[in-house]
Amino acid sequence: AATNTNSLHPSGNPKGNPQLDTSGVCVQAEACLPEVECRAGKSERTPCWTANNTRGVCCAVPDSDDKLLISAAIEDGRREFKEKLGHIEQHRDEMAAKEKPLSLFHKLLKPSAGQEANGIKTDPKERAEAYESVFASRKYAEATNMTKEDRQGGRFPRHLAATVSWPYYGEFSSALCNPNARYRTYDGMCNNPVPERAAWGSAEYPFERLFTPAYEDGVWAPRSRSVTGNWLPSARTISTVLFPDVDRQDPQLNILFMQMGQFITHDIAQSQAVTLDDEKDIQCCASDGSQPLYGDKLHFACMPIDVSPNDPYYSQFGFRCMNFVRIKLACGPECYLGYANQANSVTHFIDASLVYGNSEAAAASLRTFQYGKLRSSHSTGIELLPFTRQPSDCVPWARVCFETGDFRANQLLAITQFQTMFLREHNRVAGGLNHINPHWDDERLFQEARRIVIAELQNIVFNEYLPVLLGSKKVMQFGLLDPVNGYGNSYSADIPPMTLTESAVAAFRFGHSTVDGFFRLLHRDAPAEDLHIKDLFFDPSKIHEPHSFDRMMYSFGQQSQQLADNSMSAGLTNHLFQKDNPFGFDLASLNIQRGRDFAVRPYNDYRVWAGLPRITDFYQLGEMGSLLAQIYESPEDIDLWVGGLYEAPSYGAVVGPTFSHLLAEMFYRLKRGDRYYFANGPEVNPGAFTPWQLGELRAITLAGLICSNVDDRYDFYQAPSAFYKSSWDNEPVPCASYRPLDLEAWRE
Ligand code: HEM
Ligand SMILES: [Ca+2]
Known about the structure:
748 residues, three-stranded antiparallel β-sheet, 13 strands, 31% helix, binds protoporphyrin IX containing FE, binds calcium ion
């Protein structure tokens, strides 16, 4: 059964400070540690106070016999890992991805070489500890005959398998944190004032699990078996049968809603595939795509997707093996024995890290260091993102290619335009502040503009986007809305502000179903132009055309998004990142396989957590159940991403009850665990706004933000509820109707 490691809401201790009984609670073989540091131990753990006077739980620690076993296991584990590295050395040629035919799809998972400046480290040697820990944990579990249940429940003795210095890109000591710093750090360090929690939510910190994982070996072997003991169905088979391309337009919501979701994703999540140590991509299939590599030639991080010879699309190409490389692991500040966790290479906080970069070095490479501005380009006479110094970020025939704080920015036109909008907003605000406070220097202007842009983004996410996504009932239940007047003060240093694994690999990927196969660009005196996404991946050339920003933002507002349901556009399922290849990859397969790579538990466990009855018969899901029954042997097998999208949406929400509960739980943490959350007052937030400033920020909606940044404000019409298509009660109105942020509130 699933072990809920730390659901904070509603069953945890979400509100206030429940009184803890501190009277000698932990027994002899236990120590009191912060809950997130206690992967080991019992599922029902006793609360206690740690040595640092913070809240913790009683955690099992090893006795001396155990310690001997552990040391032996660690030695063995290291040896085995070294052996694997030896195989890699020997077969490097086969394992390294070839330029052709299909390696470009990695682009989304891995920054190009030379993006070191973006603060993203990709050298697996630096993370050897995480893998050594995996191999050691397996050895220990074998040596002590741990049951599968104990392994999956993380009931390993709490013992260091290795120590890593944190963060990976340099020496760090929490003593370097200034708890009163007015601005957040770029990499998210020092948000939590408790020294041993300084790294919480920072770039490279692992995703946080809601439930313990379902690794087959309890350590890192992917989830791969049905409860019947047979293999689970292939991810590609599930994709072709359960996610056909059916045009079902959302009657109300538009492409801006879809795009906001991906924009938020890129702020809070970026998992990267394991690479060879020279950063070359790993190949898991024979170069003709006919079969997987085998034996020592198969890299230990390979998990290729089996494509049936009868595949309705790929069979014509004889394509039988879809490359799939597992996500890099990370330990947090130290590596303990236990199950594997995956690294999130961006800051977990909603802090516009995709605009500013995830490290000081990344931010520096994006700044002009004059008047607080970000670098931009003006080759068409209007402001666009700066051109990249890394042309391999785009297809070779792209006429332009842009650089931002996130390397996924060129993926499709709409994400690139959102990045453009936030860049423009930063520079606009910095310019306005300079006008009002001419005595401020570059650094002050930059940081104040950044603080404002982050606040605007957080306001749109929590007060405008989430109510539509989750429905008003859910956002109320989780306290996700901010008060209309005054400070919110929702901060708790006990809430880990980490992106949830389950949301990153499943719930938040609901958005893939909402993507349409084309963008319809509207022209005033010419017919509409349909651009198919399969021709647009990593080619933002269109953005270089005159009026592209205004035309696209207006058009996105008029085009329906697709419903979040059991359908995916073929642009994503057969043609993902196709470029000039005859066929592309399949995002639905990747989502399903990714869930198994991270070993999130099957759908039923989360369903029950969300308060729904366990499914014991497929037909409890109605007509849709009969489709699932064609594929899965048991309702206990359903992959989380699949099950969530097979639920009908909750009343007034875009997604069904299980996904909305998971997403609410994650956003709850990202808000309440963020000391710098924009609505927090000066008691907790050293970067608090004044009540006047806060009122100004609360008034900015996405509609206002778009209007502040279009090329021609005097010739643009924007509907007030930007996520909804125009209708009689949501008519586009001239931009003059939206008051931009009044920077007078910042006069000093
Ligand atoms: C616009 C077209 C989009 C494309 C082409 C796209 C493509 C991708 C790809 C290739 C991945 C990595 C898949 C893997 O190997 O696991 C991914 C991950 C993801 N996508 Fe999308 N996506 C799109 C839109 C969206 C939207 C609208 C949302 C949410 C509303 C979304 C949410 C996510 C999330 C949460 C992840 C996991 C991120 C991580 O942990 O690295 N995507 N997407
Ligand atoms: Ca972030």
